[in-house]
């Protein structure tokens, strides 16, 4: 009986974590969100702020983030038409996660650097 209970408890955690990772997983999604939240709104500014990202990948990732309601694509009519991106208020819910990942990464880097090989 105990194994079944442990199994269920594990799934109660794994499923929402998996859902979260499905949205923010990958090399580029969190850097894009961070870039936009610090004020980079134009496509080229976002691209220039993230070393190594290609325009094709950035466009794809922006569309996916928009579908998940984390960013908004704003079209400014005129000539030429301007497009900017802004973080949706919903993206603010990722802020504690981003800072927790940052802290963990800094601590992990210190731990690894101190380990003698």
* Uncertain residue segments: none
**Average pLDDT:** 89
Radius of gyration: 18 Å
Look up the CATH topology: Arc Repressor Mutant, subunit A
Helix-strand makeup class: mainly alpha
Can you count the beta strands? 2
Distance separating the two termini: 44 Å
Could you give the order of strands across the largest sheet? 1-2
- Residue share in helix: 55-70%
CATH architecture descriptor name? Orthogonal Bundle
Instruction: Give the DSSP E fraction (strand runs of 2 or more residues).
Output: 5-15%
The number of helical elements comes to: 5
CATH class equals Mainly Alpha
**What spatial form do the alpha-carbon principal axes imply?**
globular
Strand count, sense and closure of the main sheet?
Answer: 2 strands, antiparallel
Order of helices and strands: HHHHEEH
> What is the total domain count?
1
Explain what the structure shows:
This protein is globular. The protein has five helices and two strands, in the order ααααββα. By secondary structure, the protein is mainly alpha-helical. It has one domain: Arc Repressor Mutant, subunit A, CATH 1.10.10.10.
């Amino acid at each position: 009986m105990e194994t079944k209970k442990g199994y269920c408890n594990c799934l109660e955690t794994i499923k929402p974590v998996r859902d979260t990772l499905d949205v923010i997983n990958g090399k580029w999604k969190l850097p894009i969100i961070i870039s936009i939240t610090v004020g980079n709104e134009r496509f080229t500014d976002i691209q220039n702020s993230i070393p190594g990202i290609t325009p094709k990948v950035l466009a794809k990732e922006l569309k996916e983030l928009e579908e998940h309601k984390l960013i908004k694509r704003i079209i400014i009519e005129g000539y030429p038409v301007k497009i900017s991106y802004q973080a949706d208020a919903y993206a603010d819910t990722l802020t504690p996660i981003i800072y927790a990942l940052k802290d963990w990464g800094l601590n992990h880097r210190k731990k690894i650097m101190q380990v003698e090989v």
